């Protein structure tokens, strides 16, 4: 399980709901829920139609952070930076890492996104 990896990156892993049968861990960043971690066998128990299907995901997860440099420093101390830091075509600063299961996470700078060509898009 990737819980220790995410904790090293500054995420909170809330395991209060985890049991032997449902080993589900809530993943929070800056106090906000952002995902769940659990074993594939337990996902198959919960959604039997997935039994025996290979794990896979085409795409990336994105996380917007308020302190971009601090997150970059934390990630660089824990894992390899796969790409970046750089600015995308909209002016948003970003970098990419992989978790121990191979899922790619794009880390975006909240301040540069607010000042980017995306103002009004994908924002609240």
Low-confidence parts, pLDDT < 50 over ≥5 residues? none
- Fraction of residues in helix: 10-25%
**What topology, given as strand order, has the largest sheet?**
4-7-6-5
How can the largest sheet be summarized? Answer: 4 strands, mixed
How would you classify the quaternary structure? single chain
Shape: globular
Distance between the termini: 33 Å
Order of helices and strands: HEEEHEHEEEH
Please give the number of β-strands. 7
What does this structure look like?
This protein has 124 residues and is of the alpha+beta class. The chain has four helices and seven strands. The strands form two sheets. The protein has a four-stranded mixed β-sheet. The protein has a three-stranded antiparallel β-sheet with strand order 1-2-3. β2 and β3 form a beta hairpin.
Features:
four-stranded mixed sheet, three-stranded antiparallel sheet, 124 residues, 4 helices, alpha+beta
Brief description of this entry?
By secondary structure, the protein is an alpha+beta fold. Helices cover 23% and strands 29% of the residues. The protein contains four helices and seven strands; from the N terminus they run H-E-E-E-H-E-H-E-E-E-H.
Summarize the SSE layout with pairings:
Layout: H1 3-8, E1 12-14, E2 25-29, E3 32-37, H2 40-46, E4 61-65, H3 68-78, E5 83-87, E6 93-98, E7 104-109, H4 110-114
Parallel strand pairs: 4-7
Antiparallel strand pairs: 1-2, 2-3, 5-6, 6-7
């Amino acid at each position: 399980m990737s819980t220790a990896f995410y904790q090293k990156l500054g995420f909170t892993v809330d395991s209060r709901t985890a049991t032997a049968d449902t080993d589900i861990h809530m993943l929070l960043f800056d106090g906000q829920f952002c995902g769940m971690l659990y074993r594939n066998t337990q996902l198959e128990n919960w959604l039997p139609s997935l039994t025996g299907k290979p794990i896979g995901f085409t795409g990336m997860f994105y996380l917007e952070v308020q302190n971009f440099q601090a997150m970059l420093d934390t990630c660089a101390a824990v894992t390899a930076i796969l790409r970046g830091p750089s600015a995308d075509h909209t002016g948003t600063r970003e970098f990419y890492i992989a978790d121990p299961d191979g899922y790619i996470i794009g880390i975006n700078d909240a301040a540069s996104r607010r000042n980017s060509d995306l103002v009004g898009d994908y924002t609240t």
